[in-house]
Amino acid sequence: MKKNSNPLKALDPFFTSVGKLTVIQRALIVVVSYALCIGGFVWFSYMPKMEGIDRMSTELATLEKDIERATKKAKRLPEMRKKRKEINTRYRAALKTLPEQSEIPTLLTNISTAGIESGLQFISFKPGRESVVGFYAEIPIYMTVRGDYHKVSVFFDKISRMSRIVNVKDISVSPQNTNKGLVLNTACRAVTYRFVKTAEAK
């Protein structure tokens, strides 16, 4: 039995049916087929690519904003480094005016020596309990000295010239007549400060 060598003959019924259609019907088939092809291309190829483009556009805009912010910060970097250097310099200078714990006895001795060198007599000299305030601690020193006005003034002047910070507060003066004339009993609270480390402050 001889096989059919032309496979297109199997489509003869289809072509025969199409041939019987009107021109309008055949035109509609062409239009629908074309629309299906275009729709398939748009749905499966064009739209995914457009979504990818939109996503990449959003990412690009975000990156451009990040780059703009980073560029502004980079321009300010020399200025910020200069400010940091200035702050560090001021901080180190401030620390020099705040003694460490080990320097407090020496500072108390210096205050006492300043009073003696000014010609004053110490009636009382008592360090109080320190209180921590942030990165420094206040150490009060309650003292009463005896001497004339000039000697007391010289003593306070010596304290103000010390390299360490010492503030004299709550000054109370009581005049007293003696064989050597009028003298002043001067009571005050001298407050000095020391640097407090972070762990100690906590």
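The above is record 1. Record 2 follows with the same two-line structure.
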Amino acid sequence: MRPVRPVRLVIFAKAPVAGKAKTRLIPKLSAAGAAALAARMLADTLAQARGAAVDAVELCIDPAPDHPDWQGHLPTDVALSGQGVGDLGERLARAARRATEAGERVLLVGTDCPELTRERLGAAAASLRGRDCVIHPARDGGYVLLGLSRFHPSLFAGIAWSGPMVAETTLARAAALGWSVQVGETLHDIDVPADLP
């Protein structure tokens, strides 16, 4: 019998610094207010991740962990890694490849979705036991969670990341690979002022 491959939950985050974090919210919130919200969402995401039924939690951050922007913001109880260079697709692909090549299954999330509870994270991890891919689409056409039991670069290349077709494109590419996919609930994330209520 094959051993069960562990699930690594990788949280992508930017440093919660005024003028650099959640800048699309600054028309509604001040730069300091947007940064404070980013810090709160990071803390909440970490709390949910710590309580989820996963084997490891990793914070994959921009800038790198040794950058002064992270002073006072980094936890000591999770693994830390830098996102590296490139667009969002290249950064996500790098983390997904690293985990799957290490023999792990991986859940990729950001910090923008308060609806990603520990229960939903645990359920997504459980879904990967029998599937190649699990995804929670976002209301805006993106996704708030992508889980993979295997890696293929086509899931991340040539995607308009701020557009309304991210989840649909990703699902179409997974289908073209012949992968088994679990599509979870469509959830809300917080990117622009209209998302705040």
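The chain is about 30% helix and 20% strand.
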